[in-house]
Amino acid sequence: MNEELQTLWALHELDERLVALNGSLARFPAQRQTVERRLKDERARLDTMKHRGAETLLERKKIEKDIESLAAEERKFQSQLPLVKKNEEYSALLHEITGAKQKRSDRETDLLMLMEDEERQAGERPALEKAVAGVEAEAKERLAAFAAEEARERDQVAGVERERAALMTRLPAAMRSRYERIRTSREGRAVVPIVKGACGGCYRGQPPQMLQEARRGDRLIVCDGCGRLLIWPPESSG
C-alpha cells in the first residue's frame, strides 16, 4: 500500500471513530428531554394541587362570608318580630327567618365538605412535595451525568479531529478537497474497505479487475455505486 493510501486508510479509521462518537452524542438531547419532561410533569402536578388549594381557600372564605351574612340577616328578622303587629307580617317574617336558616344550613354543609377536601389536600401535599423533590434531585444528578459524559465525548471528538487535521496535511490539496467533498456527502465516510468483494459503504460488488488493483494497493479505487474511495484492508488476506 503506497503512502497516500496508508494516509487515507488512517483517515478512514479516524472517521469511523468520529461517526461513532457523533452518533453517541446525538442521544443526549433526547435523554435530557425525557428527564426534563418527567420533571415538568411532576412539577405541574404539584402546581395543580397548589392552585386547587388556593381556589379552595378562596371558596371557603366566600362560604364563611355567606354564612356570616345569612346569620346577620336571620338576626335582623328576629329583631323585627316583636315590632310586628299584623299576623300576615309576622308570618312573612317567620318565612324569611326559615329561609335564611335553611340557606345558612346549606352553606354550612358546603363548608364542611370543603373543609374535608382541604384536609385531604393537606394530607396529600407533603407526599407529592417529597416526590417532586426526589424527581428534582434525580433529574439534577442525571443531567449532571449527561453533561459530564457529553463533555468527555466532545473532548474525544476534538482529539480525533486534531489527529485527522494532522493527517490531512499529508495529502495533496486536490485529494484533500476530493476527500472532504465525498465525506460530507456520504455521512462522514469518504473511505471504506472492500468487504467480500464489495464496497463497504453501499455493498455494491466490484469487478474482479478492480479488486486485483485494490489488493495490490498501488492506486486509488473508486466505487461506481456511491463514489467512495475503496481500499483493500491492510489486515485482510483475501
Automatic annotation (TrEMBL):
A Pfam cross-reference name: CT398_CC
Keyword Cell division: no
KW Cytoplasm (keyword) present: no
Residue intervals of the C4-type zinc ribbon domain: 198-230
Alphabetical keyword list: Coiled coil
Coiled-coil features, chain-numbered ranges: 32-80
Protein name: C4-type zinc ribbon domain-containing protein
